[in-house]
Design brief:
single chain, 73% helix, 6 helices, 113 residues, mainly alpha
């Protein structure tokens, strides 16, 4: 499934830039969206981690660990305002890590032999 970065940004910004409490129905909808976005981005970032270095890799390890924990709670639990904010921040972090990751270099002819 392709990653729709604009939709992901719109989803996490709806939570992170909210000026007041979101209605319960809206939180439920956003929790589902953000869990889906995080679930889509998580294996992408995990696959890129071996190619990351230094602070990028340390940050990715932290975000991946926290995201696994956030996705391990129930959907109902994800709707809580504090959990929803955390999920939005983690989704933003996953997207940034995914977009900033250096693509792996192709193997040179001598490295393949």
């Amino acid at each position: 499934m392709p990653i729709d970065a604009d939709l992901i940004r719109q989803s996490y910004n709806t939570v992170l830039l909210a000026t007041g409490p979101l209605p319960q129905e809206r939180r439920a909808h956003l929790a589902g969206l953000l869990r889906g976005h995080a679930g889509l981005l998580l294996p992408e970032v995990e696959g890129q981690m071996p190619h990351m270095r230094g602070e990028w890799r340390h940050t990715a390890e932290h975000v991946v660990r926290r995201t696994h924990h956030a996705l391990g709670v129930t959907v109902a639990e994800s709707r809580r305002a504090d959990r929803l904010d955390d999920l939005a921040s983690l989704t933003r972090s996953l997207l940034m890590l995914h977009e900033q990751a250096v693509p792996p270099r192709p193997l040179t002819r001598s490295a393949r032999s």
